[in-house]
Specification:
alpha/beta, 5-stranded mixed β-sheet, Growth arrest and DNA damage-inducible protein GADD45 gamma, GADD45, 60s Ribosomal Protein L30, Chain: A, globular, 5 strands, differentiation, Ribosomal_eL30-like_sf
Length: 161
């Protein structure tokens, strides 16, 4: 009796890795737009750290954005490591995005017109269980599938605009 790879590892869901990442990118964009409309976004490394420390139960999702600055900024790398550890300890899904300019466009600007620090974005909710969003459900599934293949902080590509 010979077992096929699909029989050993389960049936494929029909999406290859590229399709999964693109689908997750669309879901992330939808989630950020929806959360922004409802004022459920916390933007910025320090602002996010404060929220995680004070009220971790209301954090539904975490996005970390990397760019050239990240590669050269040891303090930012340490913050990311601590945020990731905190997310893992509190069962908060976390993803990385390599297009910080696109993220900054999605989350808007400060009152001064300056772009917000989009290196870390939290999707929060008063009573994290009370707010249901289909895009958030898709992203939770994407993160769960990624962890099953030992990709603990998957990278998502946002759709082109």
């Amino acid at each position: 009796m010979t077992l096929e790879v699909e029989e050993i590892f389960g049936q494929e869901n029909g999406l290859d890795t590229t399709d999964r990442v693109q689908s997750a990118g669309t879901a992330l964009e939808e989630l950020l737009v929806s959360a922004k409309k409802q004022d459920y976004l916390t933007v910025g490394v320090y602002e996010s750290a404060k929220i995680m420390n004070v009220d971790p139960d209301n954090v539904a999702f975490c996005v970390l954005a990397t760019d050239e600055e990240y590669e050269c900024d040891i303090a930012l790398q340490i913050h990311f490591t601590l945020i990731q550890a905190f997310c893992f300890d509190n069962d908060i899904n976390v993803v990385r995005v390599n297009d910080i300019e696109r993220l900054a466009d999605l989350v808007g600007t400060e009152e001064t017109g300056e772009p917000k620090d989009a290196h870390c974005i939290l999707v929060t909710s008063p009573g994290a269980e009370s707010w249901k969003d289909p895009a958030l459900d898709k992203l939770h599934l994407f993160c769960e599938e990624s962890r099953s293949v030992y990709d603990w902080v998957p990278t998502i590509t946002l759709p082109e605009r």
